[in-house]
Every structure is written in structure tokens, then in C-alpha cells.
Write a structure and sequence with these properties.
By secondary structure, the protein is an alpha/beta fold. It folds into 2 domains: 59 residues, DNA polymerase, domain 1 (Orthogonal Bundle); 278 residues, TIM Barrel, CATH 3.20.20.70. Helices cover 33% and strands 20% of the residues. The protein contains 11 helices and 14 strands. Strands 3-4-5-6-9-10-11-12-13-14 form a 10-stranded mixed sheet, with helices on both faces. It has a two-stranded parallel ribbon with strand order 1-2. Helix 1 packs across helix 2, helix 4 crosses helix 5 and helix 6 runs parallel beside helix 8. The two termini are 29 Å apart. The C terminus is likely disordered.
Length: 346
């Protein structure tokens, strides 16, 4: 990769205008280049048919279009598509997933290579954090999944989004902007393990995205066993920052609760969770665990999941069970990367 070039998918209009002026194109050409990059999502300057060949060659000296190579694609029977992308020299890899529904095409994107949080139930953090993704790499995942066909974005892939705050929020600006991918703020969700200071900062961000908290436990004792980073912030402090987020944005908080068989899916856990839910404006998203072969956790039985939901619902908590998607492929976060690495190492 030429260090003097910049990634097209991280450019704002002002950046493109500066490049256009530098190579001697008329001012209106900035909008044309912007359209080729984000609307038509071209992969080469040669496709920019309304730019002269001479100027295209100059433009090619300043920008490049893609940093990733798709190593593997898996398609589930339910239409879910999972891609393993290798970046630049191929040494760093991330996963990105397209989840189809009746009227939606949701892109689940990664914000980091690996994960620093190291949740004990997740494949993403087994090898730790290898680095954070740049703005263009985040946007490129969405483009790789279909770009203009994507209606929703969830930052629920590999990594902790709020630990890569600047790149994630800048990428959100591109994904949301009319000149970018034009995806509404209400259709963009940032999921976090719970970093109070970063949540407070996000509350001041001028694009009011949906905030999802990966809670996964009804108390600090259980949570710290599941999520090592939980020792840095108590649930009470995290929920306080979530409350402030709601007050600042008017956006209800989603509490994500991964049900692990025999660990956090008991009646006593549900009743304790109800107490937390009564402290803020929220809804609960129950998630059935997708097993990872190297880990000991088990997927709860369907009747136990429904019983857990019933307890919450009867207490007045708005609760949904997330539909399990991609069960017949490497559905768990980080699993495809891990399987691919093991196969290629053999």
C-alpha cells in the first residue's frame, strides 16, 4: 500500500474537494468523485467515465479504493452471509456479517482486529487485541456486504467500538451522511461492554445512534466472571451513564443479555435483572448462546429462554428473544476467523 495515498472510503467532501483542486479538476468534479466513491462504490478510477483519462491517472496517484481481500464467504440456509476479510498484507483479519430480514439488510461490522475485552464466552477475544480498524476499513465492510442494499448497521462484530471511539464515530458520519451511504441514525446501533466515560462522550455526539449495552449478567459478581473488563466499572455506574445517554438523546437503551445454560438463565437471575431494568428506560434483548467448540458454555434450552422472557414480561419489562441467525455456519463472533486460521496452519 502506497503511504502517500489515502483510502477513498474514509474521505469527506472537503477532502475530495482538496484533491480535486490539487490535480486541476473543476470544482463541480468533487461531487462527481464523491458519487463514484459512495453511491456507485467503484473499485477503480478507470470506472469514473465522466473524468478525463489524464485526470483519472492523477487521481489514482492519490487514492486507493479497497484494503481488504475476502478470504472466505459462508452463506447460511436463512440467508445470513458471513465474510472473513484480510487487510492490507493479510496478517490481520476481521469478520463482517449481513443478516437479512423481511424489510431489512443489516450489516454487523467489526471495529477492531480481535478484542481487548476477552469475554470468557466469546471466540473474538481468545487471541487478544491485534489492533483497531481505521475509518475506511469500517466503511469498507458495509460496502463488501452490498453497500447500497444495506439498511441497518450494528457495531456488534469483533472489538469494543467505544475503545476505538474516533474511528467509529467518524465512520458513522460517513455511513449516515446523505453524500455517504445515507443510513439513518435510528438504524445504526453501537454495542458496548460498558465504558461509562465513553458512553458519556457518545451522548454528546450529534448523531443520536441507538446504544446497546452488553450486560449479560444481573450483578457484578457474575458479570466479572464472564467479562474481565467488568472489574473496571460497576453495573450501577454503567447504567447511570446509560441513563444520561437517554436523557441527552431520547433514545431508549437496549440491554443485551446473552443466555448461557446454567450460568445466568435461572429464575433468580431474571428477577435480579428486573431490578436493574427499573432503573432506566430500556428494553431487553435476550440472545441464545451460539456454542464455541473450545469453550465450555452451553446453549440454553428453548423452554428455559421462554421462561426467562415470561418472568421479565410479567414484570412489565419490554423483552424480545433475538432470532438465532446463521446457526449452520460459524455463527459465533470470531469463530470463522479462528477456524480459518487453524485450517491454514495445518
Amino acid at each position: 500500500m502506497n503511504a502517500q495515498k489515502v483510502h477513498a472510503l474514509e474521505l469527506f467532501p472537503r477532502d475530495i474537494d482538496a484533491i480535486v483542486a490539487e490535480i486541476g479538476l473543476p470544482t463541480f468534479a468533487g461531487k462527481q468523485v464523491l458519487d463514484w466513491i459512495y453511491q456507485k462504490q467503484v473499485t477503480s478510477v478507470d470506472e469514473m467515465s465522466n473524468i478525463s483519462k489524464e485526470k483519472r491517472e492523477l487521481l489514482a496517484e492519490r487514492i486507493y479504493f479497497r484494503r481488504s481481500k475476502c478470504l472466505k464467504t459462508q452463506k447460511a440456509s436463512d440467508g445470513t452471509i458471513k465474510k472473513l476479510l484480510a487487510w492490507d498484507d493479510g496478517s490481520k483479519q476481521t469478520e463482517t456479517v449481513m443478516i437479512p430480514a423481511k424489510e431489512r439488510r443489516t450489516a454487523c461490522v467489526s471495529s477492531q482486529v480481535g478484542c481487548p475485552v476477552k469475554c470468557t464466552f466469546c471466540a473474538s477475544g481468545l487471541d487478544g487485541l491485534e489492533g483497531s480498524l481505521d475509518v475506511g476499513q469500517i466503511v469498507e465492510q458495509v460496502v463488501a456486504l452490498g453497500g447500497n442494499d444495506i439498511s441497518n448497521i450494528v457495531f456488534m462484530g469483533m472489538g469494543e467500538p467505544l475503545a476505538n471511539y474516533n474511528a467509529v464515530t467518524r465512520a458513522i458520519r460517513i455511513l449516515n451522511a446523505p453524500w455517504g451511504l445515507g443510513i439513518g441514525a435510528r438504524k445504526i446501533t453501537v454495542s458496548t461492554v460498558g465504558l461509562p466515560v465513553a458512553i458519556e462522550k457518545l451522548a454528546t455526539f450529534d448523531i443520536p445512534v441507538t446504544l446497546a449495552l452488553s450486560l449479560h449478567a444481573p450483578n457484578d459478581e457474575v458479570r466479572q466472571k464472564l467479562i474481565p473488563w467488568a472489574r473496571f466499572a460497576a453495573i450501577e455506574d454503567i447504567l447511570k451513564s446509560c441513563n444520561n445517554y437517554f436523557e441527552s438523546t431520547g433514545r431508549e437503551i437496549t440491554l443485551e443479555y446473552l443466555l448461557l445454560g446454567g450460568v445466568n438463565d435461572r429464575t433468580v437471575d431474571a428477577k435480579e435483572l428486573i431490578g436493574l431494568c427499573r432503573t432506566l428506560r430500556c428494553n431487553v434483548n435476550l440472545i441464545r448462546y451460539n456454542e464455541v467448540s473450545e469453550l465450555e458454555y452451553k446453549r440454553p434450552k428453548t423452554e428455559q429462554v421462554r421462561r426467562f422472557q415470561e418472568i421479565l414480561t410479567k414484570a412489565g419489562v419490554n423483552t424480545h428473544i433475538r432470532a438465532s441467525r446463521g446457526r449452520d455456519i460459524s455463527a459465533a463472533c470470531g469463530q470463522l476467523k479462528r477456524e480459518y486460521t487453524q485450517i491454514t496452519a495445518e
